[in-house]
Design goal:
The chain is of the alpha/beta class. Helix content is 40%, strand content 16%. The chain is globular, with a radius of gyration of 28 Å.
Length: 359
């Protein structure tokens, strides 16, 4: 009994001495953390509950990858589609991430997705080639939320940027990106304002899916042409994408022709323009085209998807404006604007060939 009392006394004295020399008492046990969750209305109009902020994400569509890098959160991407992997000149280390699909609209390897343990998967919300509900159903048992953010439609791009800013806690950066794009649109609008209808350039644009596949009303390229001071010769087509009669192209005699190409050797890191010249020579070798104003005046241009798709279409609009009205935009170098954008929002310049012939 005396021994037990002595031990209690020694323990008390030790505690007093520790307090006396300033040692802090043991920290209280931490409170259990509660994961914050938010709701996002995606491009498909679905209300999706997700963790906040998202730290691990698989991204299938390149437009969203581009916006994420511009927002400074590309390091949160843990898996990609093969389209990113095919362009290491632009995507760098991101191109080396695990691939869970060959393309954004290709079949998904769901086992690979689950193995990467993402909190969410980002894909297109309204693209006709993507079955969003199928993806949602496949990943629901694993507790992985799927959010459809288009990042390719001109009309909703600012909304998509804002939603991604919310998802990743980068609202201020999202506002800066939107402001950059808006400044470009304002510049074009100011210089095109008051342009008589008769001075707007007749333009024919061909879609990358094949010969005489063109753009009609409701397509982004129809909008870009009009915004840049042109008149789409098939603006009366009645639907966004159409296959046109070659004779009608000859009859409407475009002053400028734009080829939305996936096959031409253009893009990031491309410095040799000779192959693009060869591609263009083959492209214009069609019956009767030698009589078109665009061909006779050397105003046929091949456009890289780097500026013709996704969020960078806003800069593509500036290229179109310079093509249509070089006299109004003589002091503007679209290539320099593009590189400034890359430097400010993607951390470095990415030289290349984005339009052929050069402006």
């Amino acid at each position: 009994m005396k021994k037990k009392g002595l031990l209690v006394l020694l323990a008390s004295l030790l505690a007093i001495s520790l307090l006396a020399i300033g040692c802090p008492p043991p920290a209280p046990a931490p409170e259990p953390t509660v994961e914050t969750r938010i709701e996002i209305v995606d491009s498909a109009g679905r209300v999706v509950e997700i963790p906040y902020p998202v730290e691990r994400v698989i991204v299938l569509n390149t437009g969203t990858v581009s916006i994420m890098r511009a927002l400074g959160v590309a390091d949160r991407i843990v898996g990609i589609s093969g389209i990113v992997a095919k362009n290491p000149a632009f995507w760098g280390e991101l191109s080396k991430l695990p691939q869970v699909a060959m393309a954004a609209h290709a079949e998904i390897n769901y086992e690979a997705v689950i193995a990467l343990n993402p909190q969410i998967v980002l894909t297109w919300g309204t693209h006709p080639a993507v079955d969003l509900e199928k993806i949602v159903a496949a990943l629901a048992p694993a507790g992985i939320a799927v959010v459809g953010i288009d990042s390719f439609r001109f009309a909703t791009m600012f909304q998509d940027i804002g939603k991604l800013g919310t998802i990743f806690g980068q609202g201020e950066r999202a506002d800066q990106l939107v402001a950059f794009y808006q400044d470009i649109l304002n510049l074009i609008e100011e210089r095109i304002a008051g342009l008589p209808q008769g001075e707007r350039v007749r333009a024919y644009a061909e879609h990358h899916t094949g010969k005489f596949r063109s753009f009609g009303p409701g397509s982004d390229w129809n909008l870009l042409i009009e915004m840049a001071g042109g008149v789409n010769i098939f603006a009366d087509a009645g639907r966004p994408f159409i296959t046109v009669d070659p004779e009608t192209v000859l009859e409407r005699n475009p002053q400028v022709i734009l080829e939305d190409s996936r096959r031409a050797p253009l893009g990031h890191g491309v410095t040799d323009r000779a192959p693009a010249g060869d591609f263009l020579a083959v492209f214009i070798d069609r019956p009767g085209w030698e009589k078109l104003d665009a061909v006779r005046d050397g105003r046929v241009y091949v456009v890289s998807p780097a500026i013709g798709t996704g969020p960078d279409k806003f800069i593509g609009a500036l290229y179109f404006a310079r093509i249509f009205h070089p006299e109004l935009f003589a002091d503007i170098d679209p290539d320099e604007v593009l590189q400034d954008y890359y430097e400010r929002f993607h951390g470095q310049r990415f030289p290349g060939t984005f339009v052929y012939p050069a402006l």
